Amino acid sequence: SNKIIKFINYHLFAFKFNSLLLDVKIPEKKIILWSYHPFVKDLIDIKKFNKIIYRSVDDLRFLPDIKIKDYIKTENNFVKESNFIFTTNKKLFNRYKKKNKNVFYHSNVVDINFFKPKNVKIKKKIAVYHGVLSDYKINLNFLYRVIKNNYETEFWIVGEERENQNSQIIKKIKRLRNTKFFGYIPYKKIPTILSRCSIGLLPLKINKYTEHMSPMKYYEYISSGLYVISTKFEFMKNLKKNSRTFVTNDLSKFSQKIKKYKLIKTASIKEIQNIVSENTYRIRTKKILRIINEK
């Protein structure tokens, strides 16, 4: 069963991680622990480390099948024990700062050189979504209707369904003649896929999970020179308006915007840099290291 598999994986990971620490020649008191998940404190003795950093990029309380009470208790303890917390969402920032004074907000980032626009001649209008096809994040019904309403546009779907998901809507989308499913594509090949597209899609649901999201996909689309059409979840509501992004929850307006886009010229490097601004790995890493070293 899944419970047995999770139990085995949990203890295997703990064993391998602790074995790795034994092999490292650096004293643990000089190692910084950087974790994206509070449950790490159940796997290893976090007090051994010089500094503990919690990088919180989503509110995991709202994942399907999560035991909310257990999660909240573990996370609250981890937040108190962390030396620094870096979060990509302002709501998470406001929640954490009640328990820890060293909380910092920075939205998600992109490798602007990895996703820079390629000089590829686009012969037809292609709209793309890439990432795990999670039904708790993506509004699949909305996406199905958008694709169905835009037969003159080709839609590329890059990614697999999440574990144990078997969406009937995705099966319906696959049957639409203007849709191409790629399945899983290695991350290093995503820039090549995006370079052949005109529009990046973010048809996300409006719910508690997406309320706490800062999607890297947005900046990956922009850095690749694409226009972005998105639903109005929290991140997009707070985003500074720009000429490469259109935001609406209205199905008709969403579809119409796709219809209006011609074979679009790629954004200039200057235009991309103005939108991405400081949200690059290089700039963000320097900021975080400066904060850590100054404390």
- Order of helical and strand elements: HEEHEHEEHEHEHEHEHEHHH
Shape from CA axes? globular
Strand content: 5-15%
Largest sheet features: 6 strands, parallel
Q: Percent helix among the residues?
A: 25-40%
Category by helix and strand content: alpha/beta
Number of beta-strand segments? 10
- How large is the count of helical segments? 11
- Quaternary form: single chain
- Report the uncertain regions: none
| C-alpha end-to-end distance | 46 Å
Rg value: 21 Å
Nearest-integer average pLDDT:
89
Describe this structure in words.
The protein contains eleven helices and ten strands. The longest helix has 22 residues, at 2-23. With 295 residues, the protein is an alpha/beta fold. It is globular and about 60 Å long. The termini are far apart. The relative contact order is 0.13. The mean pLDDT is 89. Helix 4 packs parallel to helix 5 and helix 4 (140-148) crosses helix 9 (251-260). The protein has a six-stranded parallel β-sheet with strand order 7-6-5-8-9-10, sandwiched between helices. Strands 1-2-3-4 form a four-stranded parallel β-sheet, with helices on one face. Helix 4 links the parallel strand 5 (126-130) and strand 6 (154-158).
Brief characterization of the structure:
The chain has 295 residues and is α/β, with parallel strands linked by helices.
